[in-house]
Design goal:
alpha+beta; six-stranded mixed sheet; five-stranded mixed sheet; 22 strands
Length: about 675
């Protein structure tokens, strides 16, 4: 069987199940008695085991099999759920994540998981996690033993009685599956197939649904009516592979009657009808449930992002052709053609909205990996930290989602390491022992804002200012003139760190300049707000999408350029006589500020074909707190454009972030304002 065609599905679903395990295990730590959560984790581990075994990834299959054994012991009350047990399961999940990433990168998914497997086995043997006391264990064992003495309701007793009267023998068949069996549900199915060929199955414990979900240890019991002998039943079932033992016990109907003292003849007459009616009802209910599941599952499909990119490219071609048709209609003054083009414009606008919506992904895709990370770091540092996530349903373009993960990791690590104090220090300050970090996302206009707030030590203004003076970032005179906000934002400068000692947690003193550069490359901004002993907030502003951006189209000689609106403050027209020079740099007085001006014609070496006049058209742009004026020949107007890369042949072109094709078929280069302001 060719498995490569299923590899992509395997990788996607494995990641979903691993994430589900992470989320539910974190919830379990706060609610260890929640059996539903334990079952969810067990089901995810079981599914991972089955998928990896089917795909031939042995290390994954072995590790998940051992995880499944431990989780089964937890839900059956055999082991106590504790933080130590959780650490070991998380270690196993980290291995699984690493193996899935290896497979996704084209590897074989092999990894040394012996340490994790050994620790999981030690949990099973009781060497790591304390088991329940001997009295409780004895009670559990007794409960397991009693499972073989099944309880039957009146309907089942009557059916067995009728079968006995017709000459059938009634047996309880106990089947023991080998402990190392990877696909227990498959073995159960094969056993049922054998038994159904030799008789009728009346009852099973656990029930069929639990057996399919593998919600049992290694034993299950089936009640069967048949003409076959005990020896024949045992031989036929033992032919199924990975079956360790089969025990067949004959049942006496008279012994079952003690569970039911009602002996009404009218009730006896209606039993068979009730059984049949009940079966029909269950079958109908099962069908409805199946239909419902099918309906739900068909509402979503997975689509590779490359296909959406291809769809966007085709849409752009459509926009270009629409623009040309519009020009032709105007030139010919053809009414019907104009009406058709107008309708086409409305349809393409709707299509653009649909394509963009398809590319939007909830930030949950990034946020969901942080709770486990914060838990791990807080335990490593001996701190107590609660991560609160708000607005994970907020949507961003997939291209932004892919890039924003690493900066957020760095900021969260910084809050855990430098922000939140040790428990004893927090108590001395009159704060709760447990610190709180809030990760919040929300929409505002055409932007998404992400806030990372902690209630920790805050930033010491004096310490930051002194460090900045030492490193030559600011002068002593500037230190006293800068506002608190300007001082706090200095921590985003390259190589800046106030850490007294270097640690692996928050970047080994590299500082937060990498975070700032990444966010600015996405067309976003980051700022810092802090109050000493109260806490710190990092505020990130990001564009909704990088595919469609709003720009100001300008003309430089005969060439067209696009300037992103996110960088523009306003447009202005100055007289040439208003230009001054400071350190040989042309500047203008803009609202009381000295702003340098840059000629796009000189920067991009545009051939001069139009003579200028006494006025200069200027676009005032901003990068953080710095301003600059871009000199252009004329303003064309505001448009929404599709951002296109320049391809592999035009890499690292100065101050150009991409290009777009306009409605009339012309190409306009998109200016990277961040590169122009130093």
């Amino acid at each position: 069987m060719e498995m490569s065609q299923y590899l992509e599905v395997f990788i996607e679903e494995s990641r979903e199940h691993i994430q589900s395990c992470n989320e539910n295990l974190l919830k379990l730590e706060n609610d260890p008695e929640n059996l539903e959560l334990i079952n969810e984790v067990f089901r995810s581990a079981h599914t991972l085991k089955g998928m990896s075994a089917t795909m031939g990834f042995e290390d994954m299959a072995n590790l998940t099999h051992q995880m499944e054994n431990v989780l089964d012991g937890v839900r059956n009350g055999k082991y106590k759920f504790s933080s130590e047990l959780l650490d070991i399961i998380f270690m196993a999940i980290d291995h699984l994540e690493s193996m899935v990433n290896s497979i996704a990168a084209g590897g074989e998914g092999k990894e040394d998981v012996s340490d994790a497997i050994n620790k999981l086995k030690m949990i099973e043997s009781g060497k790591i996690v304390n088991q329940l006391d001997t009295t409780q264990t004895a009670e559990i064992d007794q409960a397991n033993i009693s499972k073989t003495n099944l309880n039957y309701d009146q309907f089942e007793i009557t059916v067995l009685e009728q079968a006995n009267e017709q000459g059938y023998k009634v047996y309880e068949v106990s089947v023991f599956i080998r402990p190392d069996c990877l696909l227990k549900a498959a073995r159960v199915y094969m056993v049922f197939d054998v038994l159904e060929k030799i008789g009728d199955i009346i009852k099973s414990v656990p029930n069929v649904e639990q057996l399919e979900e593998e919600q049992f240890d290694n034993e299950f019991v089936v009640t069967i009516v048949t003409h076959d002998s005990i020896e024949d039943i045992e031989k036929k079932v033992m032919k199924v592979s990975e079956i360790e033992k089969v025990t067949v016990v004959p049942l006496k109907i008279s012994d079952l009657k003690k569970v039911n003292n009602e002996d009404s003849s009218d009730e006896q007459k209606n039993v068979s009808q009730n059984v049949e009616g009940q079966k029909k009802k269950e079958a109908s209910s099962a069908k409805k449930t199946t239909d419902k599941k099918i309906t739900l599952s068909n509402k979503t499909i997975r689509v590779n992002i490359e296909r959406l990119d291809a769809l966007m490219n085709l849409f752009e071609e459509l926009v270009i052709d629409r623009g040309r048709l519009d020009q032709i209609a105007k030139e010919l003054n053809h009414q019907e053609l104009s009406e058709t083009v107008e309708k086409m414009s409305r349809v393409t606008n709707d299509l653009q909205s649909v394509v963009l919506t398809m590319r939007m992904v909830p930030v949950e895709a990034v946020f969901n990996r942080f709770p486990k990370m914060v838990r791990s770091l807080s335990r490593e540092l001996g701190k107590k930290i609660h991560l609160q996530i708000i607005g994970q349903e907020t949507e961003l373009d997939r291209t932004v989602i892919d890039e924003i993960g690493d900066p957020l990791v760095h900021l969260l690590r910084n809050s855990v390491d430098h922000g939140i104090e040790m428990p004893e220090e927090r108590l001395r300050k009159g704060k709760p022992e447990e610190g709180t970090i809030q990760l919040k996302a929300y929409h505002s206009g055409n932007h998404v804002f992400i806030e990372i707030t902690d209630d920790g030590a805050g930033i010491n203004r004096e310490k930051v200012a002194r460090k900045a003076v030492e490193k030559g970032i600011i002068t002593e005179e500037q230190m006293n003139q800068l506002t608190d906000k300007e001082i706090f934002n200095l921590i985003l400068t390259s190589g800046f760190s106030t850490a007294d000692k270097i640690s692996d947690i928050s970047g080994r003193g590299v500082g937060l300049d990498v975070v700032k550069n990444t966010i600015e490359s996405l067309g976003g901004t980051i700022s810092v707000h802090s109050e000493e002993n109260v806490g710190t907030t990092f505020l990130i502003q990001l564009p909704l999408t990088l595919s469609i951006i709003s720009v100001m189209l300008v003309e430089v000689q005969r060439e067209k350029y696009a300037i992103p609106l996110t960088s523009i403050i306003e447009t202005a027209i100055f007289k040439k006589s208003e230009i001054y020079y400071a350190h040989e740099q042309p500047v203008i007085d803009f609202r009381g500020k000295v702003v340098p001006i840059l000629s796009l014609q000189e920067i991009f070496q545009v051939p001069k074909v139009i003579e200028g006049n006494d006025y200069i058209s200027t676009v005032i742009i901003r990068k953080g707190d710095k301003l600059a004026g871009l000199v252009v020949d004329s303003f064309i107007g505001q448009e929404e454009i599709v951002l296109k890369s320049l391809g592999n042949y035009l890499t690292n072109v100065f101050a150009i972030s991409g290009a777009t094709i306009l409605g009339d078929g012309q190409v306009a280069l998109i200016i990277d304002c961040n590169a122009l302001i130093k």
